[in-house]
Amino acid sequence: MVRRHELTDQEWELLAPLIPRAKTGRPLGEDRRVINGMVYKIRTGISWRDLPERYGPWKTVYTRFRRYALTGIFTRALQQMQTRADAAGDIDWLVQIDSTIIRAHQHAAATGRKGGASGRTNRMITPSADPEAD
Prior knowledge:
α2 packs across α3 (58-71). This protein has a domain at 9-18 and 27-86. It has helices spanning 9-15, 28-44, 58-71, 73-87. The N and C termini lie far apart (90 Å). By secondary structure, the protein is mainly alpha-helical. It is 40% helix and 0% strand. It is extended and about 70 Å long.
């Protein structure tokens, strides 16, 4: 049974060969459980410590996630899957950007104040009289 926020059997079949095997002979089932923990964390946004127990110790999942990220395993896996999908004609690389969805932040306005440019801008600061001159 595949739970929500976990890899399907088809997704796992694509990903499993791209995940490095440990020298200790860790069973493939454990790899899937740990990677499902990573997927669950990313898709839900929970903290590592709140990871459900069914994925194993949270620190194990976090440590493996960090190692895979730092060594580029995720990047290489994505590139290999994209290459395979592109060769099969499953990817459409056409990208369009609609400028109506790109908005400036509210503070990017020219004046930033109600009333426009007539607000206090570039105030002149005058030095006070020299107290020792008296």
